[in-house]
Amino acid sequence: MLKIETFTCNMLQENCYVVSDETKECVIIDCGAYTEAEKLAIEKYINENELRPVHLIATHGHLDHNFGDASSPVPMAYHWSSMHLTRLTFALPTSRLRSSV
């Protein structure tokens, strides 16, 4: 069964989701965590539930959905139409980005 935990992040009140199942693997969707407290809340949830993040997914490349992406070691996946925006916003090498569709 899937478990979905929601975190409201940043000044735009964007929703970030941690989705997990019984395997203890999880994906983080739209990590808009901007403040250290927001990042720590997500990390705390992941650690307390002994989850292992395997993907960081962005529904699109708008900044408010991606504040927490640049510092993450987890592989990132974006829709192909947003990859250019995300790469420019965070000055990330293309090797860190993977189109999900």
Write up what this structure looks like:
By secondary structure, the chain is an alpha/beta fold. The protein has two helices and six strands, in the order βββαββαβ. It has helices at 36-48, 83-90; strands spanning 3-9, 14-20, 25-29, 52-58, 76-78, 97-99. It has a six-stranded mixed sheet with strand order 1-2-3-4-5-6, with helices on one face. A hairpin with a 4-residue loop joins β1 and β2 (14-20).
- Structural class comes to alpha/beta
Specify the number of helices: 2
Q: Helical residue percent?
A: 10-25%
Taking the sheet with the most strands, its summary is: 6 strands, mixed
SSE sequence, one letter per element: EEEHEEHE
Q: Which strand-content bin applies to the residues? A: 25-35%
Gross morphology? globular
The beta-strand count equals 6
Unreliable runs:
88-94
Measured between the Cα atoms of the first and last residue, the distance is: 25 Å
- As laid out across the biggest beta sheet, the strand order is 1-2-3-4-5-6
Mean pLDDT: 79
C-alpha-based Rg, rounded: 13 Å
Summarize the structure.
The chain has 101 residues and is an alpha/beta fold. It has helices at residues 36-48, 83-90; strands spanning 3-9, 14-20, 25-29, 52-58, 76-78, 97-99. It is globular and about 30 Å long.
